[in-house]
Amino acid sequence: MSWFRLPLGMLALGVLAIVLVAGDGLLGQEKKDGKEPPLKFKGTLPQNWGKLGLTDKQKQSIYKSQTEYGEKIDALKKQIKTLTDQRDADMLKVLTDDQQKRLKEILAGKAGGDKDVKKDEKKDSKDK
Predict the structure, then answer these.
(1) What tens digit of pLDDT does each residue of 99-115 get?
(2) Alpha helices of the chain — where are they, by DSSP H?
(3) Using only C-alpha atoms, what is the Rg of the chain?
């Protein structure tokens, strides 16, 4: 096996030499002046905005806005879902066990069709 170590060691030294000579080209994305390249955002332009002759800088600003606001909007949607679920749970607490069962049947479409639902709606409107 010792005959295998020498070529392997030479290969490792060769690779190390190439990496050291190449410098920043292989090891990092830094430019020679020490500044990092600008972060590239990805996205899609709104309909017909591609016809406006936007510069790359303008497109990047638009994509950046889409990304930043998209994250905020997603967080708000999650919050709305949580609040909606809490509201629905609170509303269900008002119903009796029989009413909850009936509601599940109605929602599942097992309550004998729309006839029973329409009868219930008429009763509700007469009570008002």
Answers:
(1) 999 999 999 987 565 55
(2) 2-22, 24-27, 56-94, 97-108, 114-127
(3) 33
